[in-house]
Structures are given as structure tokens and as C-alpha cells.
Write a structure and sequence with these properties.
By secondary structure, the protein is mostly helical. The protein has eight helices and no strands. It has a single domain, classed as N-utilizing Substance Protein B Homolog, Chain A.
Amino acid sequence: MGTRRKSRECALQAMFQVDITHDRRYLLERYWKENPCSEVVKEFTTQLVTGCLEHLSEIDKILEKHTENWSLSRMGRVDRNVLRLAVYELFYREDIPAKVTLNEAIAIVKKYAEETSGAFINGILDRILKTEPKIQKKLESLDTASVNGESL
């Protein structure tokens, strides 16, 4: 498993803890005590968790907009937090291609959630990719970069 995948899994576990306890204080310090990891994994995990928590209200509004007939509170905790992390990457991390975010979210949810969660997550993220202007610009800039021969 690559370090970015491991970081995303650690971020999911940390966000899951916040979802249960509603306690953000010393979250990552406690997490690292119980789950030691390499510094590279810790660095990316920390970026994902702190960024997601910093933008959580905006992220949840985006998700509510794109989850027809589903409130966030009705979703399973794994599904909800995989979606939150994916939306954080899509909207706030210009360095991560949208397709990578989508593939990683689906792979992780298949590992940690119910069998049907992969299709559920894919449907919501696909809807976001197709309808959000900010994400459309990100996709267009990636297409331009690959056409111009730049590495992604």
C-alpha cells in the first residue's frame, strides 16, 4: 500500500473518531499514540484531517446539495467521512487530480464499509464532478496540462 493510501485510511479513522466523540482536541496526538506511522504518512494525514475539519461546514453543505434524499446524519459514518475527505481534496487540494480522489475514495470505502457503499460514493462524487463549476475548472486545467505535455 502506498503512503498516500495509508494516509487517507488514517485520515478516515481519525475523522471517524471525531464523528463518534465530537472531540477535536488533541485528536491527532491521541491517534498517533494508538497508531504509530511514518512521518510521511503523518504529514499527509495531518493535512487531510486539519483541512477537512477547517472546512467541514462548507464540505457538509456541498454534500447535502448533492445527496438527494439522504441527509448526512442518515449515512453510515464511513461513507460520510470518506465523502468529506474526498470533497476536501476536490475543492481545496489543487495538487491532487480529481480522478485520483475519486478512485481512492471508492477503494477505501469498499475496504471499510458495506458492499453497496462503493456505488453510493461513486454516484455522489460523480454528480459533484459533473455539476460543480470549481471542479469543472480543475478538470479542465488538468486536461490542458496533459495536452501541453506537463506531468500530472
